[in-house]
Design goal:
The chain is 47% helix and 17% strand. The chain contains 15 helices and 11 strands.
Length: 458
């Protein structure tokens, strides 16, 4: 399973609900029978002459799950943490050192405590999630990643050191929390027509200005632990720059309400952000990672996912019809030979009179042609986007590639430019504002649950 696929698995699972399985703790004890002589016991039931009272040295049960924290009576064990950490590490496919692993385990423990509090709050208010509903969601996740084969996902989770029970617990936790918010918070959130109209008016006034799609990981801090939290944030940035999944890290570490959606803030304008984040985002390019940035209450790590102009058609949303023409090389081909063949290839392609002749011309060049009539420009790599969008119909890009993958060109055969955007309608904007307020209240609600909880750490 690839990193991208498994990161999607976490993302899909969290979209329905995710946390760590309840643990049954076995109590061990011995019942002493009085009034029976030791020699009688030996004769009747102990042919080996073993003493009736023993002291055991070392582990008596290799499968014993040692409690790491007890949350209002619910036990979170080291096994629960190990299995959740395994999910995170599998999603990132990056090696981490011992110090980083300790920090990851502590964060996962905090996440498991929050999930436990969410499930307990839902149970107390009679918001239930049945085992059948959890199983249905688990099967859905499996079908989207393993072709409708839950057994294959079971095997995979076990192979990475996690378990189906861990993923199902996370599903239960998020389903319970979502239902609790829908029943006890969402109905009491009100957005007036005047507020919606004011936002829509500002959108029209801001037409043509830039807006940014940003991912954020927020770590809360106090004056007492600020240095430690800042160091933790730096380590997260380092892991992300080494190839870690931003979505997976946001889900596990971010303390903002957007953690459930992988830290995605959606499309925002700079004026909507705190000054510190606005200043940073305005200097960023798509794909760039910045942080940690000190802000009120903690530190933020920003990823600029994309940017565009408000209510303005983006050329990258054009639907293109492309023909990819490619040549390959025999093993042992030198770089000089590749360069010469690529130049000949480019000359031959440039001599073709448009897309109608390219298939026949490719056959004479020993090249292959692949056609895609509905590809969005933004789906292309950044370097190719600008090249292709600068073409006229019938023109081809310069050759690109390498010895292993071959050399290819893209020929533009058609282009449907996007229509000018009118922006969200009244209903969509109201729903968006309501969601923002529900998320803020949910964050405060969870903070209150933490403050009222009785938590024992081991």
């Amino acid at each position: 399973m690839t990193k991208k696929t498994f990161a999607n698995l976490i993302s899909l699972a969290s979209a329905f609900g995710l946390a760590a399985s309840p643990v049954a703790v076995a109590a061990q004890g011995a019942v002493a029978q009085e009034g029976v002589a030791q020699e009688d016991m030996s004769d009747l039931s102990d042919p080996l002459g073993l003493p009736s009272s023993t002291t055991v040295f070392g582990e008596t049960d290799p499968n014993l799950r040692t409690a790491t924290a007890v949350v209002n009576g619910h036990v979170i064990t080291g096994t629960d943490i190990d299995q959740r950490v395994a999910l995170l590490l599998a999603a990132n496919e990056t090696e981490i050192d011992e110090e980083e692993l300790i920090r990851v385990r502590m964060q996962v423990l905090r996440n498991l405590i929050d999930e436990t509090l969410q499930i307990q709050a839902a149970t107390a208010l009679e918001v239930s999630v049945t085992p059948q509903e959890v199983a249905q969601t688990y099967t859905r996740v499996a079908s989207q990643n393993f072709g409708q084969n839950p057994e294959a996902m079971d095997t995979y989770l076990t192979s990475i050191g996690s378990s189906p029970a861990s993923l199902k617990r996370q599903i239960e936790g998020e389903l319970a929390w979502q239902r609790l918010l829908q029943r006890n918070i969402a109905p009491f959130v009100n957005v007036s027509e005047e507020e919606v109209n004011e936002v829509l008016k500002r959108l029209q006034e801001d037409r043509g200005t830039e807006e940014f799609r940003i991912g954020e990981i927020f770590l809360a801090s106090t004056p007492e632990n600020s240095a430690q939290v800042q160091n933790n944030a730096r380590q997260i940035v380092e892991q992300l720059r080494q190839g870690g999944s931003f979505v997976a890290y946001a889900r596990q570490f971010s303390q903002a309400s957007t953690a459930a959606v992988g830290g995605d803030l959606g499309w925002v304008r700079l004026g909507q952000l705190p000054t510190e984040l606005s200043n940073a985002a305005g200097q960023m390019q798509p794909g760039q990672l910045v942080g940690p940035i000190p802000i009120t209450g903690g530190y933020s790590i920003l990823l600029l996912i994309d940017k565009r102009q408000v209510l303005t058609a983006d050329p990258r949303d054009a639907i293109l019809s492309l023909k990819q023409v490619s040549i390959s090389f025999e093993p042992g081909t030198t770089q000089a030979q590749v360069q010469q063949r690529a130049e000949q290839f480019a000359t031959s392609v440039n001599a073709v009179r448009g897309c109608g002749d390219i298939d026949q011309a490719a056959a004479s060049m020993g090249a292959e042609v692949v056609t895609n009539n509905e590809i969005r420009a933004r789906a292309l790599p950044d370097q190719l986007q600008s090249m292709v969008l600068g073409l006229q119909v019938g023109q081809a890009t310069a050759p690109f590639g390498d010895v292993e993958g071959g050399v290819r060109v893209l020929m533009l055969c058609g282009r449907d430019d996007p229509q000018t955007q009118n922006g969200p309608d009244f209903g969509r904007m109201m729903a968006q504002l309501e969601d923002e307020r529900v998320n803020k209240r949910a964050q405060r609600y969870l903070r209150d649950l933490r403050n009222d909880a009785y938590i024992e750490y081991n």
